[in-house]
Amino acid sequence: MADNINEVRLDKWLWAARFYKTRSIAKAMIEGGKVHYNGQRAKTSKIVEVGATIKLRQGNDEKEVVVTALSDQRRGAPEAQLLYQETEKSIQEREKSPLPVKQMRCRCHTQIVAQIKKSDGI
């Protein structure tokens, strides 16, 4: 997967690892301070190293990953997932975060409908 690559820019690695759909979105997120490399804000041209920790925002989710391989080519999701390992702390934080409002409303509505059907004998 590493394709014998020694250096990859941060924006290109984030794009290749499929965190962002385009390099320009990756660049905007980095410049906006939404991406931290080894605990510090980084520039788009930062060279990524294996073993580095990257903390990023992806939609409503905040993820922390450890770089396991380098690539400057965007490939399928199964191959892209080989480029990083999400930390246990990151997974736990995302799992305990509240659901988005729309999903909460949908679940409440489903429960209310089920209760009404049950009380009406349907």
TrEMBL record:
It holds the Pfam family S4. The keyword Transferase does not apply. It comes from Glaesserella parasuis serovar 5 (strain SH0165). InterPro entries: S4_RNA-bd, S4_RNA-bd_sf. It comes from the Bacteria. This is Heat shock-like protein 15. The keyword Acyltransferase does not apply. SMART domains: S4 (SM00363). Keywords: RNA-binding, Stress response. One of its GO terms (molecular function) is RNA binding. Gene3D superfamilies: RNA-binding S4 domain. Residues 8-71 form the RNA-binding S4 domain.
